[in-house]
Amino acid sequence: MAAPRLEIDLDKIGHNARTLVERLGTRGISVTGVTKATLGSAEVAATLLQAGVNGLGDSRIENIEAMRIGQPSAPMTLIRSPMLSQVQRVVRCADVSCNTEIEVIRRLSTEAQQADCTHGVVLMVELGDLREGIMPDDLLDCVRETLNLPNIDFKGIGTNLACRSGVAPDARNMAMLTELAEQIETTFDLRMETISGGNSANLQWALSGAEIGRINDLRLGEAILLGCETLHRQPLDGLYTDAITLIAEVIEAKVKPTLPTGQIAQNAFGEIPTVADRGQVTQAILAIGRQDTDPCGLQAPAGIDIMGASSDHLIVESNGDNLSVGTEVAFQLNYSALVRSMTSPFVTRNMKPA
Ligand SMILES: *Cc1c(COP(=O)(O)O)cnc(C)c1O
């Protein structure tokens, strides 16, 4: 079979999604299944919808367009603020988008009028992580103008934590989101459909028995695909952490010294490596590199250690098995390695069940 390739077990992904949908359901929270790490995979999209997610979320309109082909009527949310240069595509393909700039929402309104459709808007609020979000003091003004824009359907508010600064979702920032929701509803005499509390980093908070307040949605990607929460990257009870693996093939296997010979200057990536002399080792090279994945995000099977990587070569040492030429090795991936493998044209995918 072709290598390198991702082995994607759709049953395991479906199980993870269903389990989270059920657990959060008991707390009154629905799941938006985030697909951005799968390059708009039609199979993953279908699997998540079958598992009971409320809708799909993706940060790229290209992925939403790709998923739309197989899912003409599934609710899809663009979870990154639309680019002005893409607003026309956004109103055509996404039902809802997350927004932080009124200028963009005005343009969405214009394009939605032209396309004779309505476009849903969730306003993202800054609650401390300092990535996207309207400052809380500016929120009411933004809601007011959004409500007045033709062909725009104000859906609710959301926040995103733990992405840039690692700010953990907790009782304080989640209560603030609830408070802002109530303030909006009182001021404008309306009931919001969506109060989206965050991403996979919110799971500990959401499942801890904490006061949920008005939060009724989480946007989950990594927890579904990799089976872990994302504050400490701990596996989640009852979820598969091996739904996706990356297979690479050995192209050289030799016993070599650990110490390089000659004067040491920069390597291909501007680093000056320092190595300890451990004598002779059993080294293998796999045909995969920084063009295909994030080598730092790979976890090798027991008995194999990753020693280094360049654009096209991954160097490993094995302390047992002889990794002969042609052998396939299966790696576990973190999110960074997963996203890069999914978007590399050199990495194929094998979906189970196909
Ligand atoms: C990526 C992303 C998510 C999903 O994050 P996970 O950690 O994969 O659950 C949710 N919301 C926004 C805005 C995102 O960019």
From TrEMBL:
Query: Alanine racemase N-terminal domain spans which residues?
Result: 8-224
Q: Does the keyword Flavoprotein apply?
A: no
Pfam families for the chain: Ala_racemase_N
Single GO molecular function: pyridoxal phosphate binding
Obligatory cofactor(s):
pyridoxal 5'-phosphate
Name of the protein in its database record:
Alanine racemase
What does UniProt give as GO cellular component? cytosol
Native species = Geothermobacter hydrogeniphilus
Which InterPro entries has this protein been placed in?
Ala_racemase (IPR000821), Ala_racemase_N (IPR001608), PLP-binding_barrel (IPR029066)
Q: Which UniProt keywords apply?
A: Isomerase, Pyridoxal phosphate
Please tell me whether the keyword Isomerase is annotated for this protein.
Answer: yes
Its lineage reads: Bacteria, Pseudomonadati, Thermodesulfobacteriota, Desulfuromonadia, Desulfuromonadales
